[in-house]
Amino acid sequence: MTSIDERIQGGIYGLLAGDALGVPYEFHGAADIPPLDQIEMAPPAGFRRAHGSVPPGTWSDDGAQALALLASLLECGRLDVDDFGRRLVAWYERGYMAVDNHVFDVGIQTSQAI
């Protein structure tokens, strides 16, 4: 039987792996996505992937922001919007929680809010 901590850890791993798996396919319509048996961290040859300069297996802004929220919750013991906000700014400005400290995509609303 797994403990709650192991389940949480598994959920975080799943979030990051799923996010990284989706990065190359972002901004494509459903008809453009390869068949399920061809979905990999590195898309099939000839597929024009989103974020072509980003190494396969890199999580996106979604994963980095989830990690920033988790770090804030762990440090503060509760939701502290000021602390979380500072971490979001650190992600945006310095790549906090981003793979290799590299922010390669920021949504329009996120950019405006920060």
Structure description:
The structure is a single chain. By secondary structure, this protein is mostly helical. It has one domain. It is 48% helix and 0% strand. The protein has helices at residues 4-22, 61-76, 81-94, 108-113. 15% of the residues are buried.
The sequence of SSEs as H and E is HHHH
Largest sheet: none
Uncertain stretches: none
State the domain count: 1
Name the structural class.
mainly alpha
Total of DSSP H or I helical runs spanning 4+ residues: 4
**How large is the radius of gyration?**
16 Å
Helix fraction?
Answer: 40-55%
Strand content: under 5%
Overall pLDDT score: 94
Number of beta-strand segments: 0
Terminal CA distance reads: 42 Å
Coarse shape: globular
How are the SSEs placed, and which strands pair?
Blueprint: H1 4-22, H2 61-76, H3 81-94, H4 108-113
Helix pairs in contact: 2-3
List key phrases describing it.
114 residues, mainly alpha, 4 helices, globular
Short account of what is shown:
By secondary structure, this protein is mainly alpha-helical.
